[in-house]
Amino acid sequence: MLWLLLIVGVIGVFVYIADKKVKTKLDTKFNPAEWGLPNSAGSSVATPQPTLLPPVILYKKKPSVFNDGQLRMFKALQEALRDEYILLTNILLADALSLNSDPAPAAQATIRNIANRRFDFVICHKGQLEAACVIMLGDNLDPVMVKACEAVQLPLARFRLQSAYDIAQIRSSILEAMGMQELAVNATDDSALEIMELQDGQNDNLLQVVTCCPLCSTAMLKRKARRGNDAGKLFWICPRYPKCRGMLPVK
């Protein structure tokens, strides 16, 4: 029995020595510090990096909301309109026109088609700001926008960006697009216009439905031009003239 215990003890000693050698050999090949383990002996704790804030963006106001070409066009249009209309810019087509109530898929497709289309300028009546005429710039007109204007009989005028503009020509083009014309006499007061009242009896064959001023919606008066290229012709003239210069030819 004694010799059996002796053998077991010797075997235990050999196993212990062998295990010690294996651990020593593995420790030389495996360094816990190289693995960055937080609980490993010799490992270093990672230093938290500071949070990087986004750079401060410095803003400044532009001298104009338009570029140079757009600004020249805007000023020319304003001068041509003589404060008779309100001039708006960069207006969505969908803000100027609306579709008839129609739940059909075709209507929804049309809405998507016009969603991002914009008019360069929109001339609006004072008051409710209803579109009276739209202005598009450049040589190539968007056919979708052109057809939309034609569908609702909204006048459309086209201009090219230039370094300088003929204000009178711009006004004439706008009025022509709107189906209007201006008296040949560019008056600054009533006396210069030289319009004459129609005598009693002259209105008998000229009775028509009351025509409203296209600029201020006031009921217009029928008058005859005394001189100029339109001498003798009848015109609808706003009773507020010359403060309001709404004029229409009598057809």
Shape: rod-shaped
* Mean pLDDT rating: 74
Uncertain spans: 183-209
Regarding quaternary structure, how should these chains be classified?
A: single chain
Count the helices. How many? 7
Strand order of the largest sheet: 1-2-3-4
Element-level helix/strand string: HHEHHEEHEHHEEEE
Distance between the termini: 140 Å
Instruction: Tally the beta strands.
Output: 8
- The helix content is 25-40%
Q: Tell me about the biggest sheet?
A: 4 strands, mixed
- How much strand? 15-25%
Quick tags:
about 250 residues, alpha+beta, 4-stranded mixed sheet, 4-stranded antiparallel sheet, about 30% helix, rod-shaped
Describe what is shown at a glance.
The protein has helices spanning 2-29, 68-81, 93-96, 105-114, 143-151, 167-177, 190-193; strands at residues 86-92, 118-124, 131-137, 156-159, 195-196, 221-225, 234-237, 247-249. With 251 residues, the protein is of the alpha+beta class.
